[in-house]
Design brief:
By secondary structure, the chain is α+β, with helices and mostly antiparallel strands. The chain folds into three domains: 63 residues, Recoverin, domain 1 (Orthogonal Bundle); 155 residues, Aminopeptidase (3-Layer(aba) Sandwich); 62 residues, no CATH class. Helix content is 51%, strand content 18%. The strands form two sheets. A seven-stranded mixed β-sheet has the order 3-4-5-6-7-9-8. A two-stranded antiparallel ribbon has the order 1-2. β8 and β9 form a beta hairpin. It is globular, with a radius of gyration of 23 Å.
Length: 337
């Protein structure tokens, strides 16, 4: 058994290193990556690491069956119609052009909230923000532009890790030098029109709150009380909302526009996180399954888990695995980088 002041300091250092989630030398990309870029980069890295200059279609299908099936048309475009050989130079040329403006930009901040995190430690928040290209489209619909501004204001008042242009965000826990966990995938904007319709349809504040899930209602009301909110303020807000022109029909139009405009936001955010992991030399990226996310949020909506965890993980080639690595224990979606 060790004893003495130096040993205590050593224990504190070990604990600090165990919980220090955000690397001090973190390399943060300035532009988001796409799901296609992630796939092509994986192929290119394989050819480089195995000193392979080219690969025929049959061999490619054997080595990369999922990518060959999923990105069949893209691969034809890269190697050229009627060409059966894919070269390393062709892949590099495509990757160099892949940074064209996707309509999004990246933002970063730190987050620490043990009550809503997998571990009690600081996390990196990667924000996917709307860029100039999308802003140009939004500006053509003043009511849509106003709606997005209102959602952003509400998100920031709720202390969510967002900025005025944030579409959605990922919270990331750097477990250690080998493992990274995507702890949360969230967007206040995507479902905002549905929530706004609930407000418009409700006759009273009590009716509006009664349609919310019990756990969410309790948290929501507590935050409103902390900010001095009253039912009169809700009623006044609803009147102003209707007077501005946010009818049920307009909210349906806004919902459709938001769904179409930002349908791939989580893919860009996730591909960007994988790029960060690779730049840090992290070997494995994990993502919650329905089972593990219950330990962080037992009331999380099942449709959200399917859309932002199950479907997203599968689309990037993740597999469910039993993990027993430090604090990371249980069944997670896992992929090597």
């Amino acid at each position: 058994m060790r004893s003495g002041y130096p040993d205590i300091l050593e224990d504190l250092v070990e604990v600090s290193n165990h919980l220090a989630s955000i690397p001090t030398n973190l390399q943060k990309p300035s532009a988001p990556s796409s799901k296609e870029e992630d796939a092509i980069q994986r192929v290119y890295d394989y050819l480089v690491s195995h000193n392979i200059d080219s690969m025929n279609v049959a061999e490619f299908k054997r080595v990369f069956p999922q990518i060959a099936q999923k990105y069949k048309q893209l691969l034809i475009e890269i190697r050229g119609p009627g060409v059966s050989i894919l070269t390393k130079d062709q892949l590099k040329t495509w990757l160099d052009k892949a940074q064209d403006d996707p309509g999004y930009s990246l933002g970063y901040r730190e987050y620490e909230d043990p009550a809503h995190s997998f571990r009690a430690t600081k996390q990196l928040v990667l924000q996917l923000n709307k860029g100039a290209k999308i802003d140009t489209v939004i500006s053509q619909d003043p009511l849509l532009e106003k709606f997005i501004q209102l959602v952003a204001q509400g998100s920031m008042m709720s202390d969510h890790p967002v900025g005025p242009n944030t579409v959605g965000w990922l919270r990331v826990d750097f477990i250690d030098g080998e493992w990274l966990l995507v702890d949360e995938v969230q967007s206040d904007l995507i479902n905002s029109a549905i929530q706004a319709k609930s407000m418009v349809l409700a006759d009273t504040y009590e009716d509006f709150m009664g349609n919310m899930p019990g756990n969410f209602r309790q948290q929501y009301e507590q935050k409103l009380m902390e900010k001095g909110f009253s039912t009169h303020m809700w009623e006044a807000g609803k009147r102003q909302f209707l007077q501005a022109g946010f009818t049920i029909q307009k909210l349906d139009e806004i919902k459709d526009k938001l769904s179409e405009m930002f349908k791939n936001w989580s893919e860009y955010a996730f591909a960007s996180i994988l790029k960060i992991a690779k730049s840090q030399g992290i070997k494995n990226v994990a993502m919650h399954t329905a089972m593990t996310i219950a330990s962080r949020d037992p009331f999380v909506d099942a449709s959200k888990v399917d859309r932002y965890y199950n479907q997203l993980a599968r689309s990037f080639g993740f597999k469910k695995e039993q993990v027993d690595h430090g604090d990371l224990r249980g069944e997670f979606w896992v992929r090597s980088v």
